[in-house]
């Protein structure tokens, strides 16, 4: 029973890009590297721009728990070090699924995550944690 509830919980968010993007699939490590600033491009070499939901959203917490494997405090510490050392800056944040969907749908370079039930035809799923 615990296994099924864990699986159901981890399947409620999906990683998306624009329906117009040439990217069709990424793995967990590729997604984590994009959202942690370790990579700035998709495997085909095209630019990738990660968009986060605000850290008080359930989607944000679930995404980082399952993909980057960092808690909110670990993430804040990570980005503080990256910014201080000049190695990167945290992804832009939006307030909710709808804002993220609009941005990602309009720009094939963007990548983000939303609740699975928020999906529409303007985007495509490229990873499911």
Please provide a written account of the structure.
With 129 residues, the chain is of the alpha/beta class. The protein has a five-stranded mixed β-sheet, with helices on both faces. The radius of gyration is 14 Å and the shape is globular. The chain contains five helices and five strands; from the N terminus they run H-E-H-E-H-H-E-H-E-E. The longest helix is centred in the middle third of the chain and has 13 residues, at 72-84.
Strand content: 15-25%
Radius of gyration: 14 Å
Structural class: alpha/beta
Sheet bearing the most strands, described?
Answer: 5 strands, mixed
- Low-confidence spans: 1-10
What is the terminal-to-terminal distance?
A: 19 Å
Shape: globular
Kindly report the spatial arrangement of strands forming the biggest sheet.
3-2-4-1-5
Order of helices and strands, N to C?
HEHEHHEHEE
Got a strand count? 5
The chain-level mean pLDDT equals 90
Number of helices: 5
> What portion of residues is helical?
25-40%
